[in-house]
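Changelog note: in this version the structure field was regenerated for every chain. One regenerated record is shown below for reference.
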Amino acid sequence: MMPNIIKSVANRIAETKFAGSAIADNADLSVFKEKPSAKNYLGLLLMCISYVIGLPAVGLLGAISVYHNKPFLILIGGPLLLITSHLVFLAGVYLAGGRYLVVFLRWATRIVLKKYM
């Protein structure tokens, strides 16, 4: 009974526009063989910078806050630094891998659906 349910779900998913085009186009991973662009390198750089902006910067801000006896510095600045870090990381992910994510998802969809159809 369970294999029939899985097969019917896979067939329903295959009817969607995204999955149907992935199967019809025989989606592959050939884009990963291309040389990365400057946009990809910028995205990787932004992701690395986000780690420096994250916890190390918050720790340094906390130490400065304690040294100067100004608790509101870490109370306000800490969350702002973490939010900034997350935004920089997301921008880096978008620049470095936005295109690759769609290619990978199309390939994975094709592989999984062909296995269960």
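Spot check on this record: The chain has a mean pLDDT of 90. Residues 2-116 form one domain.
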